[in-house]
Fold:
Amino acid sequence: MEPCHYEGEALWIERACLTDIAAAVGTPCYVYSRAALEQNWLAFDAAFGDYPHQICYAVKANGSLAILDLLGRLGSGFDIVSGGELERVLYVGGDPSQVVFSGVGKSKAEIRRALQAGIKCLNLESDAELYRVDDVAEQLGLKAPIAIRINPDIDAKTHPYIATGLRDNKFGIAVEAAVETYRVACAMDHVEVLGVACHIGSQLIELSPFLNALERIIDFIFELQNEGIELTHLDLGGGLGIRYGDESPPLPREYIVALLEILHRRDCALPVSIEPGRSIVGNAGVLLTRVEYLKENAWRNFVVVDAAMNDLIRPALYQAWHDVLPVKRADGKHSKVYDIVGPVCESGDFLAKDRRLATAEGEVLAVGSAGAYGFVLSSNYNARPRAAEVMVDGDEFHLVRPRETFDQMLGHESRFPG
Ligand code: LLP
Structure:
Protein backbone atom coordinates (compact mmCIF):
# COMPACT_ATOMS: atom_id res chain seq x y z
CA MET A 1 0.00 0.00 0.00
CA GLU A 2 2.57 2.58 -1.07
CA PRO A 3 2.97 5.44 -0.18
CA CYS A 4 1.91 4.56 3.39
CA HIS A 5 4.28 3.25 6.02
CA TYR A 6 4.21 2.58 9.74
CA GLU A 7 6.38 4.58 12.07
CA GLY A 8 6.06 2.90 15.43
CA GLU A 9 2.37 2.16 15.83
CA ALA A 10 1.10 4.91 13.50
CA LEU A 11 0.43 4.81 9.77
CA TRP A 12 1.82 7.73 7.77
CA ILE A 13 1.48 8.98 4.23
CA GLU A 14 4.56 10.94 3.21
CA ARG A 15 5.33 12.84 6.43
CA ALA A 16 1.70 13.25 7.50
CA CYS A 17 0.10 11.06 10.14
CA LEU A 18 -3.19 9.55 8.96
CA THR A 19 -4.63 9.68 12.50
CA ASP A 20 -4.19 13.47 12.47
CA ILE A 21 -5.84 13.77 9.06
CA ALA A 22 -8.84 11.69 10.16
CA ALA A 23 -9.16 13.81 13.30
CA ALA A 24 -8.97 17.09 11.39
CA VAL A 25 -11.13 16.24 8.39
CA GLY A 26 -13.38 13.43 9.63
CA THR A 27 -14.19 10.19 7.84
CA PRO A 28 -14.81 8.80 5.28
CA CYS A 29 -12.03 10.68 3.58
CA TYR A 30 -9.81 10.04 0.58
CA VAL A 31 -6.15 10.97 1.12
CA TYR A 32 -3.68 11.30 -1.74
CA SER A 33 0.09 11.70 -1.83
CA ARG A 34 1.38 14.41 -4.13
CA ALA A 35 4.83 12.78 -4.20
CA ALA A 36 3.45 9.36 -5.23
CA LEU A 37 1.25 10.90 -7.90
CA GLU A 38 4.13 12.84 -9.40
CA GLN A 39 6.62 9.98 -9.18
CA ASN A 40 4.22 7.69 -10.99
CA TRP A 41 3.70 10.17 -13.83
CA LEU A 42 7.42 10.93 -14.07
CA ALA A 43 8.25 7.20 -14.23
CA PHE A 44 6.31 6.93 -17.50
CA ASP A 45 7.82 10.12 -18.86
CA ALA A 46 11.41 9.15 -18.04
CA ALA A 47 11.00 5.66 -19.53
CA PHE A 48 10.31 7.17 -22.96
CA GLY A 49 13.62 9.03 -22.92
CA ASP A 50 14.02 10.91 -26.20
CA TYR A 51 11.30 8.98 -28.00
CA PRO A 52 8.53 11.43 -29.03
CA HIS A 53 5.65 10.80 -26.67
CA GLN A 54 2.73 12.23 -24.79
CA ILE A 55 1.28 11.02 -21.51
CA CYS A 56 -2.45 11.70 -21.46
CA TYR A 57 -3.62 10.95 -17.92
CA ALA A 58 -7.02 9.20 -18.02
CA VAL A 59 -9.22 11.67 -16.15
CA LYS A 60 -11.84 8.98 -15.48
CA ALA A 61 -9.52 7.33 -12.94
CA ASN A 62 -9.73 10.36 -10.69
CA GLY A 63 -10.84 13.74 -11.99
CA SER A 64 -10.41 15.75 -8.79
CA LEU A 65 -9.21 19.22 -9.63
CA ALA A 66 -6.15 19.08 -7.37
CA ILE A 67 -4.96 15.93 -9.15
CA LEU A 68 -5.53 17.36 -12.62
CA ASP A 69 -3.82 20.55 -11.54
CA LEU A 70 -0.68 18.78 -10.26
CA LEU A 71 -0.41 16.56 -13.33
CA GLY A 72 -1.02 19.50 -15.67
CA ARG A 73 1.86 21.34 -13.99
CA LEU A 74 4.13 18.39 -14.85
CA GLY A 75 3.13 18.86 -18.49
CA SER A 76 0.64 16.02 -18.68
CA GLY A 77 -1.92 15.72 -21.42
CA PHE A 78 -5.35 14.28 -20.63
CA ASP A 79 -7.57 11.50 -21.95
CA ILE A 80 -11.21 12.47 -21.49
CA VAL A 81 -14.46 10.60 -22.08
CA SER A 82 -17.08 13.30 -21.58
CA GLY A 83 -17.83 16.98 -21.86
CA GLY A 84 -17.69 17.13 -18.08
CA GLU A 85 -14.14 15.81 -18.01
CA LEU A 86 -13.17 18.39 -20.64
CA GLU A 87 -14.59 21.17 -18.43
CA ARG A 88 -12.56 19.85 -15.50
CA VAL A 89 -9.35 19.87 -17.53
CA LEU A 90 -9.99 23.37 -18.91
CA TYR A 91 -10.92 24.63 -15.42
CA VAL A 92 -7.45 23.81 -14.08
CA GLY A 93 -5.76 25.37 -17.10
CA GLY A 94 -5.00 22.06 -18.84
CA ASP A 95 -3.68 22.46 -22.38
CA PRO A 96 -6.48 21.52 -24.84
CA SER A 97 -3.94 20.77 -27.54
CA GLN A 98 -2.82 17.85 -25.36
CA VAL A 99 -6.29 16.39 -24.85
CA VAL A 100 -7.57 13.21 -26.52
CA PHE A 101 -11.27 12.38 -26.37
CA SER A 102 -12.21 8.67 -26.13
CA GLY A 103 -15.58 6.96 -25.72
CA VAL A 104 -18.28 5.25 -27.77
CA GLY A 105 -21.09 7.74 -27.27
CA LYS A 106 -19.93 11.32 -27.78
CA SER A 107 -22.90 13.67 -28.19
CA LYS A 108 -23.02 16.41 -30.82
CA ALA A 109 -22.67 19.02 -28.07
CA GLU A 110 -19.59 17.27 -26.66
CA ILE A 111 -17.97 17.03 -30.10
CA ARG A 112 -18.73 20.70 -30.80
CA ARG A 113 -17.27 21.88 -27.50
CA ALA A 114 -14.15 19.72 -27.92
CA LEU A 115 -13.51 21.03 -31.43
CA GLN A 116 -14.08 24.63 -30.38
CA ALA A 117 -11.69 24.17 -27.46
CA GLY A 118 -9.05 22.92 -29.91
CA ILE A 119 -8.34 19.46 -28.53
CA LYS A 120 -5.62 17.36 -30.08
CA CYS A 121 -7.67 14.41 -31.25
CA LEU A 122 -11.06 12.72 -31.17
CA ASN A 123 -10.65 8.95 -30.93
CA LEU A 124 -13.58 7.62 -32.96
CA GLU A 125 -15.25 4.32 -32.28
CA SER A 126 -17.76 3.82 -35.12
CA ASP A 127 -18.57 4.81 -38.68
CA ALA A 128 -21.67 6.60 -37.41
CA GLU A 129 -19.52 8.72 -35.13
CA LEU A 130 -17.19 9.57 -38.03
CA TYR A 131 -20.11 10.95 -40.06
CA ARG A 132 -21.34 12.90 -37.05
CA VAL A 133 -17.91 14.45 -36.44
CA ASP A 134 -17.60 15.41 -40.12
CA ASP A 135 -21.02 17.13 -39.90
CA VAL A 136 -20.29 19.02 -36.71
CA ALA A 137 -16.90 20.14 -38.03
CA GLU A 138 -18.53 21.35 -41.24
CA GLN A 139 -21.03 23.44 -39.23
CA LEU A 140 -18.10 24.97 -37.34
CA GLY A 141 -16.12 25.52 -40.54
CA LEU A 142 -13.09 23.56 -39.41
CA LYS A 143 -11.36 20.22 -39.78
CA ALA A 144 -11.70 17.74 -36.93
CA PRO A 145 -8.45 15.99 -35.92
CA ILE A 146 -9.26 12.29 -35.53
CA ALA A 147 -7.90 8.85 -34.84
CA ILE A 148 -9.85 5.63 -35.25
CA ARG A 149 -9.86 3.29 -32.26
CA ILE A 150 -9.32 -0.21 -33.49
CA ASN A 151 -10.44 -3.30 -31.66
CA PRO A 152 -7.65 -5.87 -32.03
CA ASP A 153 -9.64 -8.78 -30.52
CA ILE A 154 -7.10 -9.46 -27.80
CA ASP A 155 -7.85 -10.90 -24.38
CA ALA A 156 -6.52 -8.53 -21.74
CA LYS A 157 -6.87 -11.24 -19.07
CA THR A 158 -8.59 -8.95 -16.64
CA HIS A 159 -12.05 -8.66 -15.04
CA PRO A 160 -14.64 -9.00 -17.85
CA TYR A 161 -16.22 -5.63 -16.97
CA ILE A 162 -12.98 -3.81 -17.73
CA ALA A 163 -11.76 -5.81 -20.74
CA THR A 164 -12.35 -3.70 -23.85
CA GLY A 165 -10.29 -5.22 -26.66
CA LEU A 166 -12.37 -8.27 -27.55
CA ARG A 167 -14.58 -8.31 -30.62
CA ASP A 168 -17.67 -8.83 -28.43
CA ASN A 169 -16.98 -5.58 -26.58
CA LYS A 170 -18.67 -2.35 -27.63
CA PHE A 171 -15.35 -0.59 -28.17
CA GLY A 172 -13.47 0.34 -31.32
CA ILE A 173 -13.78 -0.90 -34.90
CA ALA A 174 -12.58 -4.38 -35.83
CA VAL A 175 -9.17 -4.31 -37.54
CA GLU A 176 -10.62 -5.99 -40.65
CA ALA A 177 -13.27 -3.28 -41.05
CA ALA A 178 -11.16 -0.30 -40.03
CA VAL A 179 -9.25 0.09 -43.34
CA GLU A 180 -12.50 0.99 -45.03
CA THR A 181 -13.30 3.50 -42.26
CA TYR A 182 -9.93 5.17 -42.88
CA ARG A 183 -10.62 5.33 -46.63
CA VAL A 184 -13.93 7.06 -45.94
CA ALA A 185 -12.36 9.42 -43.39
CA CYS A 186 -9.55 10.41 -45.74
CA ALA A 187 -12.08 11.41 -48.37
CA MET A 188 -13.99 13.69 -45.98
CA ASP A 189 -13.61 17.47 -46.21
CA HIS A 190 -13.92 18.25 -42.52
CA VAL A 191 -11.83 15.52 -40.98
CA GLU A 192 -8.07 15.35 -40.62
CA VAL A 193 -6.85 11.81 -40.08
CA LEU A 194 -4.03 11.91 -37.55
CA GLY A 195 -3.63 8.53 -35.99
CA VAL A 196 -4.76 5.21 -34.70
CA ALA A 197 -5.86 4.41 -31.15
CA CYS A 198 -6.30 1.25 -29.11
CA HIS A 199 -7.15 0.41 -25.49
CA ILE A 200 -7.63 -3.24 -24.62
CA GLY A 201 -8.58 -3.08 -20.95
CA SER A 202 -7.68 -2.03 -17.46
CA GLN A 203 -5.69 -3.57 -14.57
CA LEU A 204 -3.55 -5.67 -16.91
CA ILE A 205 -0.91 -7.48 -14.94
CA GLU A 206 0.90 -9.11 -17.84
CA LEU A 207 2.79 -7.47 -20.69
CA SER A 208 1.89 -9.93 -23.42
CA PRO A 209 -1.61 -8.59 -24.28
CA PHE A 210 -0.18 -5.06 -24.65
CA LEU A 211 2.64 -6.32 -26.85
CA ASN A 212 0.36 -8.48 -29.00
CA ALA A 213 -1.94 -5.50 -29.49
CA LEU A 214 0.98 -3.31 -30.52
CA GLU A 215 2.18 -5.87 -33.08
CA ARG A 216 -1.32 -5.99 -34.52
CA ILE A 217 -1.56 -2.20 -34.69
CA ILE A 218 1.78 -1.96 -36.45
CA ASP A 219 0.61 -4.53 -39.03
CA PHE A 220 -2.44 -2.34 -39.48
CA ILE A 221 -0.38 0.85 -39.86
CA PHE A 222 1.65 -0.84 -42.63
CA GLU A 223 -1.57 -1.95 -44.29
CA LEU A 224 -2.74 1.68 -44.32
CA GLN A 225 0.63 2.78 -45.69
CA ASN A 226 0.14 0.40 -48.62
CA GLU A 227 -3.06 2.29 -49.32
CA GLY A 228 -1.17 5.58 -49.23
CA ILE A 229 -2.59 6.56 -45.81
CA GLU A 230 0.14 7.97 -43.57
CA LEU A 231 -0.54 8.47 -39.87
CA THR A 232 1.21 10.85 -37.50
CA HIS A 233 0.50 9.32 -34.13
CA LEU A 234 -0.16 6.11 -32.29
CA ASP A 235 -2.30 6.12 -29.12
CA LEU A 236 -1.87 2.95 -27.09
CA GLY A 237 -4.44 3.70 -24.39
CA GLY A 238 -4.04 2.94 -20.71
CA GLY A 239 -4.48 -0.21 -18.71
CA LEU A 240 -1.26 -0.95 -16.86
CA GLY A 241 -2.22 -2.70 -13.62
CA ILE A 242 -1.14 -1.94 -10.08
CA ARG A 243 -0.45 -4.03 -7.03
CA TYR A 244 -3.52 -4.24 -4.78
CA GLY A 245 -2.43 -7.37 -2.96
CA ASP A 246 -0.16 -10.07 -4.31
CA GLU A 247 -0.17 -9.08 -8.01
CA SER A 248 3.17 -8.19 -9.54
CA PRO A 249 2.38 -6.08 -12.59
CA PRO A 250 5.16 -4.76 -14.82
CA LEU A 251 6.64 -1.43 -13.77
CA PRO A 252 5.92 1.56 -16.02
CA ARG A 253 9.55 1.45 -17.18
CA GLU A 254 9.34 -2.25 -18.13
CA TYR A 255 6.12 -1.63 -20.00
CA ILE A 256 7.40 1.35 -21.96
CA VAL A 257 10.78 -0.23 -22.72
CA ALA A 258 9.00 -3.31 -24.10
CA LEU A 259 6.79 -1.12 -26.31
CA LEU A 260 9.76 0.87 -27.61
CA GLU A 261 11.65 -2.31 -28.34
CA ILE A 262 8.83 -3.52 -30.60
CA LEU A 263 8.51 -0.14 -32.33
CA HIS A 264 12.24 -0.18 -32.99
CA ARG A 265 12.28 -3.77 -34.24
CA ARG A 266 9.31 -3.13 -36.53
CA ASP A 267 10.86 0.09 -37.83
CA CYS A 268 7.92 2.20 -36.72
CA ALA A 269 8.88 5.60 -35.37
CA LEU A 270 5.49 7.23 -34.89
CA PRO A 271 5.09 9.46 -31.82
CA VAL A 272 3.28 7.52 -29.10
CA SER A 273 0.55 8.66 -26.71
CA ILE A 274 -0.47 6.59 -23.71
CA GLU A 275 -3.48 7.07 -21.43
CA PRO A 276 -2.58 5.69 -18.00
CA GLY A 277 -5.03 6.31 -15.17
CA ARG A 278 -4.88 3.69 -12.43
CA SER A 279 -1.10 3.29 -12.60
CA ILE A 280 -0.66 7.00 -11.85
CA VAL A 281 -3.23 7.57 -9.14
CA GLY A 282 -4.29 4.14 -7.79
CA ASN A 283 -1.51 3.58 -5.31
CA ALA A 284 -1.23 7.29 -4.53
CA GLY A 285 -4.42 7.23 -2.44
CA VAL A 286 -6.14 5.61 0.53
CA LEU A 287 -9.65 5.83 1.93
CA LEU A 288 -9.89 6.50 5.65
CA THR A 289 -12.88 5.14 7.50
CA ARG A 290 -13.80 4.95 11.18
CA VAL A 291 -15.11 1.87 12.98
CA GLU A 292 -18.68 2.40 14.14
CA TYR A 293 -19.35 -1.01 15.66
CA LEU A 294 -17.92 -4.46 16.10
CA LYS A 295 -20.65 -7.03 15.56
CA GLU A 296 -20.43 -10.78 15.87
CA ASN A 297 -22.78 -13.67 15.34
CA ALA A 298 -22.23 -17.38 15.61
CA TRP A 299 -20.81 -17.55 12.06
CA ARG A 300 -19.05 -14.32 11.24
CA ASN A 301 -17.43 -11.23 12.72
CA PHE A 302 -18.17 -7.83 11.24
CA VAL A 303 -16.45 -4.48 11.51
CA VAL A 304 -19.12 -1.93 10.61
CA VAL A 305 -17.35 1.19 9.33
CA ASP A 306 -18.57 4.62 8.22
CA ALA A 307 -17.49 4.19 4.56
CA ALA A 308 -19.69 2.13 2.28
CA MET A 309 -20.17 0.92 -1.27
CA ASN A 310 -21.34 4.42 -2.21
CA ASP A 311 -17.84 5.67 -1.29
CA LEU A 312 -15.83 2.80 -2.80
CA ILE A 313 -17.81 0.49 -5.06
CA ARG A 314 -14.91 -1.58 -6.44
CA PRO A 315 -15.26 -4.51 -4.00
CA ALA A 316 -19.01 -4.78 -4.71
CA LEU A 317 -18.78 -4.22 -8.46
CA TYR A 318 -15.63 -6.10 -9.46
CA GLN A 319 -15.01 -8.29 -6.39
CA ALA A 320 -11.89 -6.15 -6.05
CA TRP A 321 -9.44 -6.79 -3.22
CA HIS A 322 -8.17 -3.76 -1.30
CA ASP A 323 -5.79 -3.95 1.61
CA VAL A 324 -7.13 -2.70 4.97
CA LEU A 325 -4.75 -1.44 7.63
CA PRO A 326 -5.38 0.11 11.06
CA VAL A 327 -3.94 3.64 11.19
CA LYS A 328 -2.92 2.85 14.78
CA ARG A 329 -1.49 -0.63 15.01
CA ALA A 330 -3.03 -2.53 17.87
CA ASP A 331 -1.83 -5.52 19.81
CA GLY A 332 -2.09 -8.52 17.46
CA LYS A 333 -3.19 -10.77 20.34
CA HIS A 334 -6.78 -9.59 20.04
CA SER A 335 -7.05 -9.94 16.32
CA LYS A 336 -9.98 -11.70 14.68
CA VAL A 337 -11.04 -12.47 11.15
CA TYR A 338 -13.62 -9.88 10.08
CA ASP A 339 -15.72 -8.77 7.15
CA ILE A 340 -15.41 -4.99 6.86
CA VAL A 341 -18.82 -3.68 5.91
CA GLY A 342 -20.54 -0.32 5.52
CA PRO A 343 -23.88 1.09 6.69
CA VAL A 344 -25.65 0.69 3.30
CA CYS A 345 -28.62 -1.66 3.27
CA GLU A 346 -27.26 -4.31 0.93
CA SER A 347 -25.24 -7.42 1.57
CA GLY A 348 -23.10 -6.32 -1.37
CA ASP A 349 -21.95 -3.42 0.78
CA PHE A 350 -18.53 -4.58 1.90
CA LEU A 351 -15.05 -3.15 1.58
CA ALA A 352 -13.19 -6.35 2.41
CA LYS A 353 -13.88 -9.89 3.56
CA ASP A 354 -12.04 -12.36 5.77
CA ARG A 355 -9.36 -10.01 7.06
CA ARG A 356 -7.45 -10.58 10.26
CA LEU A 357 -7.50 -7.34 12.22
CA ALA A 358 -7.18 -6.05 15.74
CA THR A 359 -9.49 -3.07 15.95
CA ALA A 360 -12.13 -1.42 18.12
CA GLU A 361 -15.01 1.05 17.95
CA GLY A 362 -13.71 4.53 17.12
CA GLU A 363 -10.48 3.31 15.48
CA VAL A 364 -9.59 4.45 11.96
CA LEU A 365 -8.81 2.04 9.13
CA ALA A 366 -7.07 2.85 5.84
CA VAL A 367 -8.36 1.11 2.72
CA GLY A 368 -5.39 0.86 0.36
CA SER A 369 -4.87 1.50 -3.35
CA ALA A 370 -8.04 3.60 -3.42
CA GLY A 371 -6.78 6.54 -5.49
CA ALA A 372 -8.17 5.27 -8.80
CA TYR A 373 -11.85 4.62 -9.50
CA GLY A 374 -12.65 5.39 -5.87
CA PHE A 375 -14.06 8.87 -5.39
CA VAL A 376 -15.08 9.15 -9.07
CA LEU A 377 -17.40 6.17 -8.76
CA SER A 378 -18.93 7.37 -5.50
CA SER A 379 -22.60 8.24 -5.26
CA ASN A 380 -25.24 9.54 -2.88
CA TYR A 381 -26.86 6.11 -2.50
CA ASN A 382 -28.76 5.87 0.78
CA ALA A 383 -28.61 9.71 0.78
CA ARG A 384 -25.04 9.62 2.00
CA PRO A 385 -23.01 12.76 1.33
CA ARG A 386 -19.82 12.25 -0.66
CA ALA A 387 -16.52 11.90 1.18
CA ALA A 388 -13.90 14.60 1.67
CA GLU A 389 -10.60 14.56 -0.24
CA VAL A 390 -7.18 15.58 1.06
CA MET A 391 -3.87 16.07 -0.78
CA VAL A 392 -0.76 15.48 1.28
CA ASP A 393 2.43 17.32 0.37
CA GLY A 394 5.38 16.39 2.61
CA ASP A 395 4.31 17.14 6.16
CA GLU A 396 1.38 19.32 5.10
CA PHE A 397 -2.09 18.35 4.07
CA HIS A 398 -4.70 20.32 2.15
CA LEU A 399 -8.43 19.76 2.10
CA VAL A 400 -9.04 19.80 -1.66
CA ARG A 401 -12.69 18.79 -1.51
CA PRO A 402 -14.70 19.33 1.68
CA ARG A 403 -17.20 16.70 2.65
CA GLU A 404 -20.49 17.25 0.82
CA THR A 405 -23.15 18.88 3.01
CA PHE A 406 -26.83 17.99 3.23
CA ASP A 407 -27.63 21.41 1.74
CA GLN A 408 -25.44 20.66 -1.29
CA MET A 409 -27.05 17.27 -1.64
CA LEU A 410 -30.60 18.59 -1.51
CA GLY A 411 -30.17 22.13 -2.82
CA HIS A 412 -30.52 21.57 -6.57
CA GLU A 413 -33.70 19.48 -6.30
CA SER A 414 -37.22 20.78 -5.86
CA ARG A 415 -40.39 19.54 -4.31
CA PHE A 416 -43.23 18.69 -6.66
CA PRO A 417 -44.59 21.98 -7.97
CA GLY A 418 -48.22 22.95 -7.28
N1 LLP B 1 -8.13 4.94 -22.00
C1 LLP B 1 -9.35 4.44 -22.23
C2 LLP B 1 -9.93 4.57 -23.56
C3 LLP B 1 -10.05 3.79 -21.20
O1 LLP B 1 -11.27 3.29 -21.43
C4 LLP B 1 -9.46 3.67 -19.90
C5 LLP B 1 -10.17 3.03 -18.79
C6 LLP B 1 -8.17 4.23 -19.71
C7 LLP B 1 -7.54 4.84 -20.78
C8 LLP B 1 -7.46 4.18 -18.40
O2 LLP B 1 -7.19 2.88 -18.01
P1 LLP B 1 -6.28 2.59 -16.72
O3 LLP B 1 -4.86 3.02 -17.04
O4 LLP B 1 -6.84 3.37 -15.59
O5 LLP B 1 -6.40 1.14 -16.53
N2 LLP B 1 -13.75 1.30 -12.94
C9 LLP B 1 -12.84 0.22 -13.25
C10 LLP B 1 -11.86 0.61 -14.36
C11 LLP B 1 -12.52 1.10 -15.61
C12 LLP B 1 -11.53 1.45 -16.70
C13 LLP B 1 -12.22 2.09 -17.86
N3 LLP B 1 -11.36 2.56 -18.90
C14 LLP B 1 -12.12 -0.22 -11.99
O6 LLP B 1 -12.39 0.33 -10.92
O7 LLP B 1 -11.32 -1.16 -12.04
Q: What stands out?
A: The pocket of LLP is lined by residues 58, 60-61, 79, 102, 162, 164, 199, 202-203, 237-240, 275-279, 314, 318, 372-373 (CB under 6 Å). The CA atoms of residues 179 and 223 lie 8 Å apart. The chain has a mean pLDDT of 96. Residues 208-226 form the longest helix (19 residues).
